[in-house]
Amino acid sequence: MDFSLVLIAPFVLLLLLIATAPLFFQDWWTKHYPKVSLSLGVIVLAYYVLILQSHEIVLHTASEYFSFIVLIGALFVVSGGIHIATKDLTNPKENVLVLLVGAILANILGTTGASMLLIRPWIKMNKARIQPYHIVFFIFIVSNVGGSLTPIGDPPLFLGYLKGIPFWWITPHLFPMWATAVGLLLALFYFLDSKNFHEQKKSVIKEIEQTEVWKIEGSINFIFLGIILLAVFIKSPIFLREGVIIAAAVASYLTTKKTIHSANHFTFHPIQEVAILFAGIFATMIPALELLRAEAQAMTSLSTSFFYWNTGILSSFLDNAPTYLSFYSVAEGNLNPTSSIPLSELLLHPDFSSAVIAISIGAVFFGANTYIGNGPNFMVKSIADHYKIHTPSFVRYITHFTIPFLLPILFIIWLLYFR
What is the DSSP-derived secondary structure letter of residue 399? Predict the structure, then answer.
């Protein structure tokens, strides 16, 4: 048996536990998930450090995890200091407008920033009739698909920017897919929400006191939010970017009034849960990514369909940033094996530009397929759980929402743009 496949076992086991444990033995999982996640991660890291002596890859993974958790943790803290007072009950048209605004903001604040800013008011706006689909479609649109128009939107696109892809290159090239996917998702949501609204109208609306006042408190945190977003572009010296981000988050937390945190029901539990689970995921997925990179180097003469589906499927369960880089390297290697062609000229080649577009859409859109496909997904779920909102389990999320609603749209995107 190929030992590299054995090394993937901890990663597979962790995914299975995340998917099934809350369903079959929730009390045990709630109490012991930190031990399980960190123990499985330590097993893989110990093998790479003590047996393979691969210190560099372990340090690189640790650095990626640190940058990842610092960014989403800071955005979580800063957004927790912004309280948006909303109506107590919104209709389907207003909900669609909020989701569309979220999809646009995801390109300015990043999917994590937009998700953390809007999830609490989104829950409050729909609290009288909130259903699992409210949370899931928020994840689909705001936490993933929406952020595909700028490098700020999602980490894979930012890595492409660091590789040399011009900042505004992806906006016109990815806009047709963005508009199609967001439009279809909003149409599906409107259908579901209209049905729910009319079913609940008689029993719920009478009990809700309508308030039309929209108010934002803690607006100083938009300054800290801006500092964090600007800090993302700091490349050196090492960890200066993370230091600035941490400083902004600490300043935000210390200057935010307790009444705002109380109004947002702010606690550190959601980010703590994400930090622990993703520590295990980042560590255990090292062998899986190594195997992917090794296989990718042998690939030649590949179609845009290949890049779209393979980047997408793997981005549903692996971190979409290194998955993006792996397939980007394959696309570049096919047409520019000696790296002699400047990227500006390479992007003019239709085969390469089409591959980059397919890889970008696959990495961003498919991140919505599971709770672990993208960082903000699990954070949104954790916040919803904290508000005692019924959210679907890992498996039910896939079987009841990804497969019937998102997968057909991903197929339509393939038919229209990548076939």
Answer: I
Over residues 35-44, the mean pLDDT reads 96
The Cα-based distances of 395 to 19, 136, 379 in angstroms read: 6, 13, 17
Judge contact between 280 and 41, C-beta under 8 A. Answer: yes
Residue 11 burial (CB count, 10 A): 23
pLDDT band at 409 (very low <50, low <70, confident <90, very high): very high
| Start-to-end Cα distance in the chain | 36
Is the backbone peptide bond immediately before 237 cis, with ω within 30 degrees of 0? yes
Kindly state the helix (H) or strand (E) to which residue 241 belongs, with its residue range.
Answer: helix 240-255
* Apex 70 CA angle, 67 and 72, nearest 5: 105
Residue pointed to by tokens 């394959």: 330
Q: Which residues does 211 contact at the CB level (< 8 Å), separation at least 6?
A: 87, 88
The confidence band for 212, taking pLDDT boundaries of 50, 70 and 90, is low
pLDDT of residue 1: 44
Q: Which residues contact 304 (CB under 8 A, 6 or more apart)?
A: 354, 355, 357, 358, 418
pLDDT of residue 235: 81
Token readout for 356 is: 């980059």
Inform me whether the pLDDT recorded for 167 exceeds 90.
no
pLDDT category, 74, cuts 50, 70, 90?
A: very high
Q: Containing domain of residue 180, as a range? A: 3-418
Residue 313 CA to chain centroid, in angstroms?
A: 14
Of 148, 160, 151, which Cα lies nearest the Cα of 361?
148
Domains of the chain: total: 1
